[in-house]
UniProtKB/TrEMBL annotation, chain A:
Homology family: Belongs to the TrpB family.
Pathway: Amino-acid biosynthesis; L-tryptophan biosynthesis; L-tryptophan from chorismate: step 5/5
Organism encoding this protein: Pelotomaculum isophthalicicum JI
Job description of the protein: The beta subunit is responsible for the synthesis of L-tryptophan from indole and L-serine.
Keyword annotations of the record: Amino-acid biosynthesis, Aromatic amino acid biosynthesis, Lyase, Pyridoxal phosphate, Tryptophan biosynthesis
Keyword ATP-binding: no
Record protein name field: Tryptophan synthase beta chain
Enzyme Commission (EC) number: 4.2.1.20
From TrEMBL, chain B:
Primary gene name: trpA
Gene3D superfamilies, per database record: Aldolase class I
Active site feature: E44 (proton acceptor), E55 (proton acceptor)
PANTHER family, sorted: TRYPTOPHAN SYNTHASE ALPHA CHAIN, CHLOROPLASTIC, TRYPTOPHAN SYNTHASE, ALPHA CHAIN
This protein's GO CC annotations: cytosol
Pfam families in alphabetical order: Trp_syntA (PF00290)
Reactions catalysed according to its record: (1S,2R)-1-C-(indol-3-yl)glycerol 3-phosphate + L-serine = D-glyceraldehyde 3-phosphate + L-tryptophan + H2O
Protein name: Tryptophan synthase alpha chain
InterPro entries: Aldolase_TIM, RibuloseP-bd_barrel, Trp_synthase_alpha_AS, Trp_synthase_suA
Organism: Pelotomaculum isophthalicicum JI
Subunit text: Tetramer of two alpha and two beta chains.
Lineage, top ranks: Bacteria, Bacillati, Bacillota, Clostridia, Eubacteriales
HAMAP family xref list: Trp_synth_alpha
């Protein structure tokens, strides 16, 4: 297999100007992933700063009400900064520091990755600039303020659809102007090689912990692991440890917005076609001429027209299954989990909860589902209120 | 020798770029022969893409205008076929890999060859991934243009060895767009290319004035001008043919004056 490939997918489809930067990153990563001092420092950061391991919570009330498989929630929402994003960011910013960089840049959709990057940058004394679609800066105004509090500069992106895909474009453009002192801290398992591998490696701690925790409490592997998928980093992190365990079903939940038959969706596997974009070969929502589609989801974090290349391969080989979940279903799950278990999930994660609510009743009581709760819902409270027609002032 | 390489024989070439379908196909169809008449030795036509990550704001906006106007790859193929009936100027398509990939690589290159496209520039296809198109281009007699950048350094040798048509030498870091000065040591980049190949080397990104064109032409085999022309198209819309022609003529004069 060619370098940086997952079957047919992946690769390094970027302007020549950036090739040196990704090759430099690849070299550094290959060295530090086997460097004990680096790995120790990262582990300490994850334990003492991010709050790992995160809990694996048995959702007993939900299990009882749904009447089927036992439901466990992997509580990535309890990490510092409120999502799984911190796992990857601590790794990448530490790597940037070791590489002698003084500045990090990043894209963000919902703001979770931006907040995590700004946090790690503050902790490690790095300059930080975040690119965020203008539409997203409006729907996630609180997170913009958070990033600024943390010392980052936030650039609202006004090109294209003014959402996540355009924020990625702009961060790539920015990186081509300044590579010597700057690392692009990518937020998901996407982009040119080596990013999909690096981000997956920094996120695979999620699945590793799930395995240890479930073996300890249940003495067996789960029957299904469910996670939401935009670019797919929390899902890849949750899945990776189980890819070689064929008894464990891996299920990624895509944002279907107003429905897969309505143009307003972001369900890449359901509606996309193989293409090349943002440095990788994968599936993308696009038209017959290869123009990238202006996708839509209630969750800014899933509002992305592509999916990481390793997911594309997992889908092709049938090892993982990808299912569409609509805005309505996600909002319903958002409220259901809040009321039932007292946990307000990120609207992204609510997509995974929604599918678990469908699946659990159809499974036997001795079976186990683990849902990766990728983030907490504080940032989404106002958006959900708007969705329900409640005028709420932040 | 390909038609593209030939365009560099006994002269410093002026290569001009416009986004196809901006403001509409009719205007693009008039602009191409007009630019050739005004002194352009090769012409690049951009197939608009929704997310042109190597482009600055000027060309990004041109792509948006063209797409909003309904421009498609098929319309541009048909337009090139019509242009070919009146003009022999070497023509290149510039676009990103996704529009080619999604159209079907084989189908795309077949159409290029049928309608008379001589070369292809794909900014998100670096040396490591050129297998995607290199053989197909070869088979259809279309030069796949290689790019080198100020960050390429030791990669220059690698890239230049397999280069076809001409080498697109990116003048500076960043994206396309007008720059007040170019600080990269272009002479050194070109010299490195010449150590391994006779394929000509043209400099692009940021060149807007006849003086810049002249000084870049002294250091290389040709000059690529894009954003400055696209700006004129944006300003004059359907009436851009005359101002663009005048501008192209002035750039050609700048090159000739500096390299006599």
């Amino acid at each position: 297999m060619k370098k940086g490939r997952f079957g047919n997918y992946g690769g390094q489809y970027i302007p020549e100007t950036l090739m040196r930067a990704v090759q430099e990153l690849e070299k550094a990563y290959e060295f530090y992933k086997n460097d004990l001092a680096f790995q120790n420092e990262l582990e300490i950061l994850l334990k003492k700063y991010a709050g790992r391991p995160s809990l694996l919570y048995y959702a007993e009330k939900m299990t009882r009400k749904l009447g089927g498989a036992k439901l466990y929630l992997k509580r990535e929402d309890l990490n510092h900064t409120g999502s799984h994003k911190i796992n990857n960011v601590l790794g990448q910013v530490l790597l940037a520091k070791r590489m002698g960089k003084t500045r990090v840049i990043a894209e963000t959709g919902a703001g979770q990755h931006g907040v995590a990057t700004a946090t790690a940058a503050a902790l490690m004394d790095m300059e930080c600039e975040i690119f965020m679609g203008k539409e997203d800066t409006e729907r996630q105004a609180l997170n913009v303020f958070r990033m600024e509090l943390l010392g980052a500069k936030v650039h609202p992106v006004t090109s294209g659809t003014m959402t996540l895909k355009d924020a990625v474009n702009e961060t790539m453009r920015e990186w081509t102007t300044r590579m010597d002192d700057t690392l692009y801290v990518l937020g998901s398992v996407m982009g040119p090689h080596p990013f999909p591998t690096i981000v997956r490696d920094f996120q695979k701690v999620i699945g590793k912990e799930i395995k240890e925790q479930i073996m300890k409490t249940e003495g067996k592997l789960p029957d299904a692991v469910i996670a939401c998928v935009g670019g797919g980093s929390n899902a890849m992190g949750a899945f990776y440890e189980f890819i070689q365990e064929p008894s464990v079903k891996l299920i990624g939940c895509e944002a279907a917005g107003l429905g897969v038959d309505n143009p307003k969706n972001a369900a890449t596997i359901a509606n996309g076609a193989v293409g090349v974009f943002h440095g990788m070969k994968s599936y993308f929502c696009q038209d017959e001429y290869g123009q990238i589609a202006p996708v839509y989801s209630i969750s800014a974090g899933l509002d992305y027209p592509g999916i990481g290349p390793e997911h594309a391969q997992l889908s092709d080989t049938g090892r993982a299954q990808y299912v569409p979940v609509t805005d309505d279903e996600a909002v319903n799950a958002f409220e259901y989990l809040s009321r039932t278990e007292g946990i307000i999930p990120a609207v992204e994660s609510a997509h995974a909860v929604a599918y678990a609510m469908k699946l659990a009743p159809a499974m036997a009581q001795e079976q186990i589902i683990v849902v990766n709760l990728s983030g907490r819902g504080d940032k989404d409270v106002a958006a959900i209120a708007r969705y329900k027609g409640v005028a709420l002032y932040e | 020798m390909s038609k593209i390489t030939k365009a560099f024989e006994n002269r410093k070439a002026l290569i001009t770029f416009i986004t196809g379908g901006d403001p509409d196909i009719e205007t693009t169809e008039k602009l191409v022969p007009a630019m050739a008449a005004a002194g352009a030795d090769l012409i690049e036509i951009g197939i608009p893409f929704s997310d042109p990550i190597a482009e600055g704001i000027v060309i990004q906006e041109a792509d948006q205008r063209a797409l909003l106007g309904g421009c498609t790859t098929d319309m541009l193929f048909a337009m090139v076929a019509r242009i070919r009936q009146k003009s022999g100027v070497p023509l290149l398509f510039m676009t990103y890999l996704n529009p080619i990939y999604t159209y079907g690589k084989e189908r795309f290159l077949t159409r290029c060859a049928e309608c008379g496209i001589d070369g292809l520039i794909v900014p998100d296809l670096p040396f490591e991934e050129k297998d995607e198109l290199a053989d197909l281009c070869e088979r259809h007699g279309v030069d796949l243009i290689s790019m080198i950048a100020p960050t390429s350094e030791e990669r220059i040798t690698l890239i230049a060895k397999e280069a076809k048509g001409f080498i697109y030498c990116v003048s500076s870091l960043g994206v396309t767009g007008v720059r007040s000065e170019i600080t990269t040591d272009i002479g050194k980049m070109v010299q490195k290319v010449r150590e391994v190949t006779g394929v000509p080397c043209a400099v692009g990104f940021g060149i807007a004035t006849p003086e810049q064109a002249g000084s870049m032409a002294r250091l290389s085999d040709g000059v690529i001008v894009g954003s400055a022309i696209v700006k004129l198209v944006a300003k004059f819309g359907k009436d851009c043919v005359e101002p663009v022609s005048e501008y192209v003529h002035s750039m050609k004069k700048g090159i000739d004056a500096a390299t006599k």
